[in-house]
Design brief:
Helix content is 69%, strand content 0%. It is mainly α.
Length: 107
């Protein structure tokens, strides 16, 4: 998608990296239980603080490597905030898919 929107190869690679890393963060909360992720988010802060803290740390690292020049050390480009937000929305799309799967398996 980054190529079709006028991005370079490094922008495409960085977008892919950001999207896949963010998908993993969202998917961690999906696979915690067979209940809906929206029901299990109520006690997320009290149940497993390590999961919450580590997810926030990974999010901070992804943002550091994709939104600042530090990522160039690893061959990544710098994403604009709009492109990063697009990657975030794409990554969030895994939640409805997993919710649908849980609903189908429940019945």
């Amino acid at each position: 998608i980054a190529f079709f929107t006028g991005g370079s190869e490094s922008t495409a690679v960085t977008s892919c990296f950001a999207t896949l890393a963010l998908i993993q963060i969202f998917h961690i909360f999906n696979v915690r239980s067979s209940q809906s992720v929206f029901r299990s988010l109520k006690g997320i802060y009290s149940e497993n603080k390590f999961l919450t803290i580590s997810s926030l740390c990974v999010l901070a690292i992804v943002m550091l490597f994709t939104l600042s020049p530090i990522g160039r050390l690893f061959g990544l480009g710098i994403l604009s905030f709009g492109r990063f937000a697009f990657c975030f929305v794409l990554a969030f799309a895994i939640i409805p898919f997993c919710e649908l799967k849980k609903l189908i398996l429940k019945y």
